[in-house]
Amino acid sequence: MNRRVIIMTAVAASLASTAAGDDNEIYQTDPIGDAVVRRTDPGNDGPINPDSVLPDLVEVRIGAWAPFDPVNDRYTGALIDPDDAHIFRIQLTIKGLVNPPGPIGLAGQPYQPYNFGPSPLYTFVDFDVDSQKNSGGELVPLAKFRYLANAARFNGRPEDSYGQRAVTDWSNDVDDDFFTSPQFERTGAEFALVMCGCWPVTLLSDDANAIFEPGETWLVEGRFFERAQGFQEASGVSGGSDFGLYDPWTEIQFKHDAISDTTTITYVGALDMQGAAALRGGQQQPADTDVENDTSVYEALKDVIAGAGENWSDPVDELIDDWEGRNPEDFLDVTDWEFNALVGTTYSTEQLDSLFYVWTDIGFNCKSGDYNGDGEDDSLDDALFCQTFQDDPVIVQQFALGFNMFDANYDGVIDADDHVCCLADFNGDGALNILDFVAFQAAFQAQDPDADVNNDGAFNILDFVAFQQIFITGC
Which residues lie across from 157 on neighbouring strands? Predict the structure, then answer.
C-alpha cells in the first residue's frame, strides 16, 4: 500500500470522530477587541502606519493532520488520531485583514515592512513539546522578543508557574545573565512559529499586484517554523540560517475570510520523516543533520538529544540537559504541546533604537492586574500597588524600550491614572478592618500627609469624618 493510500485510509477512519469534536486538536482563544499599541521605542512615539490593522489575536490551534493530497494541497484534509499522525497543522487566527511581513532591516535585509500590504503581521508563537519549563528557551537578545519578556507590557503576567519568570520591570529584570531572576529566557519552548521580518518572504501564489487583499488566499515561503535557537551551540545541523540552527525554508498559507473578517495563518509540517516524504512526494529519507533536505520535528529533536550527552558551556548546558537519553517519538503528539503567542506590527519608519516591533496582543492565560503573581487580580494586588505608588508618581526607566507592569495605561508614568487605590485600606494589607483605623490614627498624630484625607491642608476632626465615610462606602 503506498503512502498516500495509508494517509487517506487514516482520514476515512477518523472522519466521524473528528466531526464529533474529539481530542485530535487543541486550541486556545483570546478575546476579540483587546488589541492595544505597545511600542518598544524610547519615547513611545514611533510612527505607526495609520492604515495598519492592529493585529488582534483570536485563537491558536494545533492538531494531528492528514492532507487529502499532501503534495499538491497540504491545507485541505482532516484531523486524525495523534497516534496515527505523521503530519501536524498549526492555525493562527487574527481579527481583520493582516498580511505577510516584509523585512525590517535585520540580517542584512532592507526596511520594507509593507511589501505585501499596509498591515504586516509579526509574531512569535512558542511551543513546549515536553511540558518541562527548563528544557528549552532562548538566550538574550532573542529572549527579549518572546512572551515572557513582554506579557507584562499588557499589565499582567501568566497565571501559571511561568508567571514568576515574566519580566515585570524591564530596567531591573533584563540583563545578559541567564541565571539571574526572573529567568525569562527559560520559556520551556522547543519550537516556534515565527514571523519576525528577519529573512526574505517569497510569494508563491500568483497575484497581479502582490498586495494581500480581502478574500484572498496566499502561499508564502520563509523561515517560519524553527527549533529554539538556545540549542544552537549543542547542535550539529547545517543548512539553516547559521550552523546549529534548525530553521528550514517553509511554506505557510495566509487566508482572509471576508465574512468573518479574519485572517488565518496555517502551517502544515512533518512530525517525522514519513510525514516529510509524504509532503514532498518522494522516498522517505533518514533523519540526518541537513536542514536543506527533508525536515521534521523528529529529526530536530533527535539532534537535540544527541547533543544532550555532551558537556556544553552554560547556559546551553542548562537548556539541553533534560533531553539526555530521551526518545523523540515520545513528543510527537501535538495535543500534548503547550503554547503561547505574542503578536504585533512594526513602525512606518525604521526605529534603530527600538526593539523593532509594536506589540498589540498576547495569549494566553495572562491575568491583567495580577501584580503579586498569585494568579488572581484581587485586594492583595490593590494593596501592593497602593503601598508602592499611591503618594508620588514614578517615571518608568527606559520607557518604552522598557516598561513596568504597574504602568497600566502605558504612558511611562506610574500614578493614579493606572490604578484607583482604596483609601480605606489605610495599612495596605488588602483587608478593611479596625487595623486601618489604628493606622490612620497613628498617621494623623504624626501629621502624615496621607492622614489629610480631605486634602484641606489641616489635620482636624474633618479628616476623621472623611476617613469614616470612605471606610463605610468600602473605599
Answer: 367
